[in-house]
Design goal:
This protein is an alpha+beta fold and about 170 residues long. Helices cover about 55% and strands about 25% of the residues. The protein is built from 6 helices and 6 strands, in the order αβααββααβββα. The strands form 2 sheets. A 3-stranded antiparallel β-sheet has the order 1-3-2. It starts with a helix and ends with a helix.
Length: about 170
């Protein structure tokens, strides 16, 4: 593959990550990149993988979602080569992020993951945060992986309601 387009795709990813103040998922980056038709899904995955391998971004997997953040080295690299991204692409990214920031922030602030415990059951860990501050973390032990996955999925939909209920009862 020609390295020039791949370099541009990597710079676009770094630019996106530099413009948000919270970790975002590969799916969120994918939505933006594919909507604007900058590149295809497989090329995007390759670019993310290479950025992660070189330490320009941090990649953290939670259940069925991988969140990304730019590193200090990634910011430094972007500052050297940002001029390779056209002003039109930068503007499109800024507009997209302005339009979708709240939903992107909400999606990244509600996290869930599950894993098998030493006794063979599964533990679902549910977290809600706001600007890097954990508001609540709940750990539930359940007997099956299917139930753990279901709990994690429900947390994505019901976290606000659960948080409001708990704070009303406890405060």
């Amino acid at each position: 593959m020609n390295q020039e387009p791949m370099t541009l795709y990597k710079l676009i990813i770094l630019y996106i990550l530099d413009r948000v103040s919270f970790p975002i998922s590969i799916a969120q980056i994918s939505d933006l990149v594919l909507e604007k038709e900058y590149t295809g899904f497989l090329t995007l995955q390759q670019a993310v993988s290479e950025l992660s391998e070189t330490g320009l971004i941090l990649s953290k997997s939670l259940a069925n979602r991988t969140q990304l953040q730019i590193t200090a080295e990634g910011r430094k690299t972007l500052s050297y080569f940002e001029n390779r991204i056209s002003d039109a692409i930068k503007e499109e990214i800024r507009e997209y992020l302005e339009k979708h920031e709240l939903e992107m922030r909400d999606e990244s602030s509600i996290q869930s993951n599950y894993y098998r415990t030493v006794n063979g059951e599964f533990e679902a860990e549910l977290t809600a945060s706001d600007k890097e501050v954990n508001l609540i973390t709940i750990r539930l032990t359940v007997p099956t992986e299917e139930l753990a996955a279901s709990v994690c999925g429900n947390w994505q939909r019901c976290s606000e309601e659960v948080y409001a209920y708990l704070t009303a009862k406890l405060f």
